[in-house]
Write a structure and sequence with these properties.
Elements (H helix, E strand, L loop, with lengths): L14 E4 L7 H6 L2 E6 L16 E4 L14 H12 L14 E5 L6 H13 L41 H11 L7 H12 L6 H6 L1 H17 L20 H12 L10 E2 L18 E6 L5 E4 L25 E3 L7 H4 L5 E5 L8 E6 L3 E2 L5 E2 L2 E5 L3 E6 L34
Parallel strand pairs: 1-4, 2-3, 2-4, 5-12
Antiparallel strand pairs: 6-7, 6-14, 8-13, 9-10, 10-13, 11-12
GO molecular function, one term: protein tyrosine phosphatase activity
Keywords: Hydrolase, Protein phosphatase
EC number: 3.1.3.48
């Protein structure tokens, strides 16, 4: 009588998802042709532990909590799983490889599912014929390794279109219906999708979305200790490495569609927050330029403005007014550097024009409450009463702020009055 196999197999792939108890069933693992095991669990495995003898093992020590960084492990786990699917040289009657990969955590619900989803999304974006990944330096504990060769067909089933988080999750649930990654892992999977599933660790860590997210995590870690963040962890949006405005727009479009709302509806989640509201119309909107009311120096453009909303429980009819918010909230910008370098948790924001220096707003790393009742963390608020808003349908060419404003804004000048050149004053 044939031994039973692992029950939860991803359709189209020899990938199995299960809990820790699967390691205690050696006959079931052998019947399922398991040659590679991914353990996504904070557990100390003893060297030479019997259930792992004769298989390749990748250990990812991770807790199943919202803020665990599982995203950083995707390139390594993808390469390991892909190697496992193409490792076993014994052929079946169909001529396919018969290697199998077990991905497990404690219960086979959240962490293990997230790792498999990342692989499904990544492999669905690869060319139809891809090279075998480089073998790792550890020797494979099987004499059959010598018989393997690169001409062996790969055990992959590429879908006609790249998988999204939702379509990959639907596919995995066909084999294991109760998988349910926690909300933090789903968020990271959507980030991975927005980055087009980088293959290598270098590609992941150099991507703008990942850098913004890591910096945001470091900022929030500092705030949890009641201290200002280190300057190295502050992302000045106007100093990011942008090749052109179109590149910046594409990144913002990707990030605004992630649906990464904060758990607290009153708080603007700083994680990869964008300058565009997900509900914005698709047609180009006029760009807003904020200028110091005293000296007309450019303070910020609309792509550096953080949208915010009043809390759900606040009834707009209570005040009986439709006045705009008293503050405009911004991402950190390079002209704030000297102020933030002082290491204070809060303080004033002054006009970047040294000859002006007018008080135009305030900042608080732990958050500011707007006049509408909305709370933005961290808060960099510019008082509307201290700035003028100029609208333009064409984006300026410069990316850094604090210098001359871009030409072509929509402010109408009186007859006979000419715009001066140089420092942007009218």
């Amino acid at each position: 009588m044939d031994a039973p196999t692992l029950p939860s197999k991803c359709p189209g792939y020899n990938i199995y998802v299960d809990g820790f108890q699967a390691l205690r069933q050696p006959q079931v693992l052998q019947a399922s042709n398991i040659t590679h095991v991914v353990s996504v669990i904070d557990w100390k495995f003893k060297p030479g532990w019997a259930p792992l003898r004769g298989v390749q093992h990748l250990h990812i020590p991770l807790d199943d909590v919202y803020d665990s960084n599982i995203l950083e492990h995707f390139p390594r786990s993808n390469a390991f799983i892909h190697e496992g699917l193409n490792y076993w040289p014994t052929k079946s009657s169909e001529g396919l490889d018969q290697s199998g990969v077990l991905v497990h955590c404690a219960m086979g619900v959240s962490r293990s599912a997230t790792i498999v989803l990342a692989y499904l999304m990544w492999i669905s974006r690869q060319p139809r014929s891809i090279q075998h990944p480089e073998k790792n330096s550890n020797p494979v504990p099987s004499s059959a390794t010598e018989e393997s060769n690169d001409s062996t067909p790969e055990m992959i089933s590429l879908p006609p279109t790249p998988l999204t988080v939702d379509s990959a999750l639907a596919l995995l649930r066909e084999g294991r219906p109760h998988v349910e990654p926690n909300s933090g892992f789903i968020k990271q999977l959507r980030m991975y999708e927005a980055m087009n599933c980088p293959t290598t660790q270098e590609q992941l860590e150099s991507h703008k979305i990942y850098r913004r997210w890591i910096n945001s995590r470091n900022v929030m870690d500092a705030l949890s200790s009641n201290r200002a963040p280190e300057m190295a962890n502050i992302t000045f949006r106007d100093e990011e490495d942008e090749s052109d405005d179109e590149s910046n727009s594409n990144i913002n479009d990707q990030m605004s569609g992630l649906g990464l709302s904060s758990k607290d509806a009153e708080i603007t989640d700083p994680d990869i927050s964008t300058s565009s509201s997900p509900n914005e119309a698709a047609s180009p909107a006029p760009e807003v330029e904020l200028k110091c009311r005293k000296c007309r120096r450019l303070i910020a453009r609309s792509n550096f403005i953080i949208p915010h909303k009043p809390p759900p429980h606040r009834d707009p009819s209570v005040d009986g007014s439709m006045e705009p918010c008293a503050h405009v909230f911004l991402h950190p910008l390079s002209w704030m550097r000297d102020t933030l370098a002082q290491g204070e948790l809060d303080g004033r924001l002054s006009c970047p024009n040294l000859k002006c220096g007018a008080n135009i707003g305030k900042f608080a790393w732990q958050g500011l409450r707007c006049s509408c009742g909305g709370w933005v963390t961290p808060g960099f608020g510019i008082a509307r009463s201290k700035v003028d808003e100029a609208r333009s349908f064409k984006r300026g060419s410069g990316s850094r702020l604090g210098g001359a404003p871009a030409a072509g804004n929509a402010v109408r000048l009186p007859p006979g009055m000419r715009r001066s050149s140089g420092n942007g004053n009218l």
